[in-house]
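Objective 1.3, modelling of assemblies. Example input:
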Amino acid sequence: MDLAELYRDVIVDHNRSPRNFGRLDRADREARGDNPLCGDQLVLQLQLDGDRVSDLRFEGHGCAISTASASLMSEAVKGRTLAEVRALFGDVHRMLTQQDEAPSPALGKLAALGGVRAYPARVKCASLCWHTLNAALAGEREPVTTE
Amino acid sequence: MATAAESLSPLDVGRVRADFPILARRVNGRPLAFLDSAASAQRPAAVIDAVTDYERRHHANVHRGVHTLSQEATALYEGARERVRRFINAASTREIIFVRGTTEAINLVAQSWGRPRLSAGDEIVITWLEHHANIVPWQLLCGQTGAVLRVVPIDRRGVVDEAAYRAMLGPRTKLVAFSHVSNALGTVLPAREMVAAARGRGIATLLDGAQAVPHQRVDVRDLGCDFYAFSGHKMYGPTGIGVLYAREAVLEAMPPWQGGGDMILAVSFDGTTYNALPWRFEAGTPNIAGAVGLGAAIDYIEGVGLARIARHEQELLDYATARLQELPGLELVGTAPDKASLVSFTVDGVHPHDLGTVLDAEGVAVRTGHHCAMPVMEVFGVPATTRASFALYNTRDEVDTLCAGVRHAIGMLR
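Predicted structure (tokens):
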């Protein structure tokens, strides 16, 4: 096990200083993610401009993997169309769960989460924010969990 | 003159470790430092061998056949019951019911003792320290009967507010149920005094002893409780076997919990005659191998000596408490003066799950999360802690490895 593969510099940086952390003045969509066994919780807020995610913020607490994942996600989806977000969700999901596949080049900085797949117990940490994003876009009211 | 405890020879931890085959394992290239015995302890070869010998040479169903194997299996199963009786000083084996574990024991009491007796407005008193296994069965019972659950608060050290407890005991209180030792914080509760206060008012008492039995001498008659529940796997025995102790007079007045074979004397469609104690509460073929393993675990513990084990664990607790507090930003969660051998803590800037992963990479097994005690976490305002728990086979070196791992995590993540 190589911890440096899991806690890459990008992950540690985004955990220390999460981007887009906080709340929006006005949100078109909001969803909660809650992994009660871990104690990871987050609230995700979105502003939509047509079919584009024009702005988003997240707030909450969790481990380095879940915090960095939410921070990286917030940078990656801001300004994207809903179709692009869905495609990115698929790429992230494959990266986190499929051992032998090379990560999609479309992932950009999100590829830093690639080390997580060697730690099956931590995949739920990295994926919580993405499932919360899906729930926000679908307008679901119940909190999402990946446990 | 030296007291009995002082004159004890120290525990030979090297010899003890050689009794536990799993401790020879390496994890992620490092020697295993198993600091998660409060979740489930490892088994000595004596337990593994007793179970294997039973399976290979003696297995048959109990209490049934006239054939040799059935008689041997019955003798082994009932022999384990007698060992349990002696271990906790119960008056009779009729008071020893084998169950799957502490959780099942508490559910049995809730449904068989509680459900017919409780009605709307009656009160069940528990403490804020409880494991979910000593909360949820009572919530279910309250939902079924209209009874009310009342919770004794704890202070910032994790000590139960005894004055509040006494004040809570009233004419509607039917049962108090509390842990003998807290699994999340290690607090040892003043069980004898708390039981006496309830008994003085005619209130029934249940103790969750899952975390107590591996660490201290438990004498149910000295405690005076009506029910005492514990699990085999936290005391070096197998999983899937546990014990409900209940006073015979209390058991006699309880209807059966589950129906089936072994718990009856005669069945016809006009009616059924139930078996005598304790079998009335053991419907179906029991976990015979588990009981045999539990009996062997008791022999093992008594061979080493509970007083010797307690002293060894106390030394480890004191050492770990001192060493961990040297680490910057580490805060102990649970600082009761009377504690069993576990430390729960948070580290500034390092989430427990990240710490658990870093420690695992260094061969150190700890528990992270809410320890099935979410209300306790709520008191301390944390979603999760890291918990290291110590058993008779742990060493100071392992505490040092833990501390080095925490330092490493701080350096990497903070």
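Chain A has a mean pLDDT of 93.
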